[in-house]
Every structure is written in structure tokens, then in C-alpha cells.
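We treat protein structure as text, and this decision shapes the records that our systems exchange. We quote a single record here, exactly as it is kept in our systems:
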Amino acid sequence: MPLWRAVYEATPAIALTCPSPHLERVRVRDLEVRLYRRVVEIRDGVLALRPFAPPDLRDRAREAALESGVQTDRVNPVAEAVCFEVARRVKLRGGPAVHAAPGDPTGGADLDSEVRILEQVSMTWRKNSALITELADRVDVHVGEKAEGRR
């Protein structure tokens, strides 16, 4: 839910239905439909934010994660969370889209693999929020410098 809220804050058009935290807690039926909807909404939001991140952001986020001592098997979820956070920040502060190319697709090939990937990113987002913020701050500086250089 925290990852979804962050995506929704930056791209409210992703919500397929009006969000109601109360209904989410009390409605137990249709868990598979709710999971599918949540995955689609998050993925749509990530895709909508992609133009706000420079093409080399993922590589820089991976490098920053490794330099910070993130274990090799955790680098990809950390880099995904950092990329998302930087793109979200750029969009929320009204920054321009920095590129039009879609970039490398990320995500799973089917619902199960997509859920696993989003679970990893979401858990990384929640449990390592200080690290994600620190790395996003470090990488975001370069995004701002590049945007100012084009003006």
C-alpha cells in the first residue's frame, strides 16, 4: 500500500476506482481481482513516470546502491525504488519530462512474476526508506543538473 500511495500521489489517474482505505480493509472478497488491479495501477504509474527519469538513471542508481554496500542480490529492487523515487520527485516538483524514449522495460512476464518484483520493490521501499531517500538524493542532483543545463 505505501508504494501504491506514492505512485498515486504522483499519478492519480492510475486509480481504476476511487481509493478507499476503509473498503480495502473490510472487503475480503475478490482478493485476486484486487491484487491484479493493484499491480496494474502500480505498473501504469511507473510507466507514466518513466519519461521523468533520464535513460541512465537505473545504471546510476545501481552504482550508488553498490557503493553504499547494498548486497548484490538486493541491488535491483533498490535501484528500481530509487528510479521510481527520483522520477516521482521530478514530476511532483513540476519538472519537465527529461526523455521521451520508453527505456528498458522492467517488470515480470506474467502476473506472478510481476507480483514478486513489486513485492521486492515495495518491501525495499518500506524497510529501507532512509537508504532509498539517501540514494535518490544523491542521484537526483544529477537529474536536476542535466535539466538546468538544457535551459
Q: What stands out?
A: The two ends are 37 Å apart (CA to CA). The helical segments are 2-10, 21-26, 31-49, 57-67, 75-92, 111-127, 129-150.
